Amino acid sequence: xxxxxxxxxxxxxxxxxxxxxxxxxxxxxxxxxxxxxxxxxxxxxxxxxxxxxxxxxxxxxxxxxxxxxxxxxxxxxxxxxxxxxxxxxxxxxxxxxxxxxxxxxxxxxxxxxxxxxxxxxxxxxxxxxxxxxxxxxxxxxxxxxxxxxxxxxxxxxxxxxxxxxxxxxxxxxxxxxxxxxxxxxxxxxxxxxxxxxxxxxxxxxxxxxxxxxxxxxxxxxxxxxxxxxxxxxxxxxxxxxxxxxxxxxxxxxxxxxxxxxxxxxxxxxxxxxxxxxxxxxxxxxxxxxxxxxx
Length: 294
Hints:
Blueprint: E1 6-17, E2 20-31, E3 35-46, E4 56-68, E5 71-75, E6 79-84, E7 87-97, E8 100-109, E9 116-126, E10 137-151, E11 156-171, E12 176-189, E13 191-201, E14 204-215, E15 218-234, E16 239-250, E17 257-269, H1 275-291
Antiparallel strand pairs: 1-2, 2-3, 3-4, 4-5, 4-6, 5-7, 6-7, 7-8, 8-9, 9-10, 10-11, 11-12, 12-13, 13-14, 14-15, 15-16, 16-17
């Protein structure tokens, strides 16, 4: 099983007659980091001479309901997966959450050395579900999704995009809340472009442009331009400031580089200060200096 993915109460009822395998029933419960749910399905496949590349069959996921960070995620209707001569086809797979639905369709060709992809993902995504996969980050809002995935699993080719609508991203450390994030994220081949995203960050204004290049499924290079105005920050702890910034984050070299200008408009240290503790610390430092290094 995948790391962090646990199956329990798994029941499997299968019959093999000659070259035909019938999966009369499969059901169970699955738990992940911040999601859990139950599923049930059935299927049938014929495997001539037990050659998997010649298999022909169908699997139907009759029931599937999950709870992800308090959101019910369920399939709108039974999902069907067909297998024929090394090609896996996804038919009528639609999942919904909070009244929004997203559909996955297309096929995966397993006959080559690397699986070939011909997939589409369309609909409206509820972003809060992402918190189940990235527990340290909070998400909210929604996005219109229209993505096509071609190429191969080793080198996918993307097209289409995602349109963010009043999205929210909350980081725990440093404490940053980005809200009302709106704008397009465009997929073009091996490039993902952020074209004029705007929103607010800790009470100030934020604008983001830039993009990344993919090598396979990993980021190989990229650059982002961030303009911030009247953004509240707390760094180091206890020092609260309001800043304007014009920053560039470059990921094209072996080490990412953050450059630009930050102007502090105002700041205040808000934690209690003990003069007695400062005096004791200063006295201890003077004594250590007089005695020399130990």
